[in-house]
Input
Amino acid sequence: MRRRVFLSTITASIAAACSNDNARPFFADEGETTVDRTAADAAATDQPEPTAPPDAATSRPSADLPSVEPITAPPVDLDDGAFGLGVASGEPDDRSVMLWTRLDGALPESVPVVWEIAVDDEFDHLLATGLLEVNGATGHALHALATSLQPATEYWYRFRAGDQQSPIGRTRTLPAAGSTEPVRLAISSCQDVNRGAYAAHADLAAADVDLVIWLGDYIYRGGTTLASFRDTYAAYRRNPQLQASHAAHAWFLITDDHEVANEYDATVDPGIRAAAYRAWWENQPTRLPEPTPAEPDLTFYRSVDIGSMARLILTDSRQYADGSTLYGEPQFTFLEKAVDHGARWTLVASSILASGIRSAEEVLLPYTLDGYPADRIRLAELLASAPQPLILSGDLHTGMILDFSADPTDPTMPVVATELMAPAISSTFPEQYAPYAPFLPLLNPHVKHIDVTNGWLLLELGTAEATAEYRTVADVADPLSAVEATFRFVV
Output
């Protein structure tokens, strides 16, 4: 495994030396969700547009909004625990959000499921509801797009099937265009269930954040068939702390390698990739169009504006890597347009390290931009013209802060962005190499901070500065471990 080579080489080297569109550009296809009844349907056609949110970052919906009557769930014979995989919401904009669940256990081929979204967690004021049929063709997963919502507003949602009801989820919409209210983001990746517990998710679930950005490696060792990938996602989704994290916040997700195959690239078997992408789509609250079971391509790169505070750009660093390019020409064309915007910050979500790690002149991580210097130069040129760029990365099971430039080995190159690598939830840095990690900046001066403990990154964006707070798990083996802030960095 290349990461082990990377770590071994660092150890040896240290010993020898002393390691444009502004409005929702990716929401062109909303899928096949059927909305049966919404508050907008009940309102008069001349109802005024929702106003901008008050000074508070998150507000409650207006009590004057029209409500709808609940739908009776049709009878269906289900085993107990049909909602045992929990609920999730994702990819919000300022007026809508995707709601998700997937039924578990022995199921009929087709099951009618009611979804609901409300002003309150008692569901006394129901804003929208609908009835959808889920079936075995999609792993009994449900994607329901809730629309006609208000910006920067908190909502509650749930699902019902037969006489069973799901856990209640909480979500919130993004700020309206023009808003420069502070934004709080949770960022992490890498949650190998066999390497550690999920205390970090429990801490994240309790945190006051507007959005979760997931940088990949949601599952490990998924398999080679659609059935095996579905089983792996189900096993992960049954974890109560992961369920709590999803139920508390809306998520945006990208993938890394372990959702498909270890360190995969464009040469991976098309059948495996098709099964992996299909299973990922079924198991996440995404607006991306449904991939066919035989189609190996799913365009993960996309962007969204968080008011006027930030543009979030999500990238794909695996699917197009072919030895000559990491991102591919279509993705670079997308990036050229995405970095041209009027928001305060540019957030580039990357599943892999961008700034690079070297031992002497040796390339240690060839699957990252270290192996694609032309792509790094091109990305640096794009970010040099972008408003206040921050790269948000994962993959290496460490928390790091780095200076990003076109060439990390050349100290005369201008720094064009700060890279914030988020700690991993549970995937651990090899214990035998951890004592050497503090010496990594000696060989790589662009590395400003490194911490190999697990946890997650809290990023607060303001108009004048961004504050990164690294939240660290005391004992990754303990699901009840304490989690606390151990380091803060201001951009």
Q: What stands out?
A: Residues 1-58 have pLDDT under 50 and may be disordered. Residues 165 and 446 are 51 Å apart (CA to CA). The first strand starts at residue 37 and ends at 38.
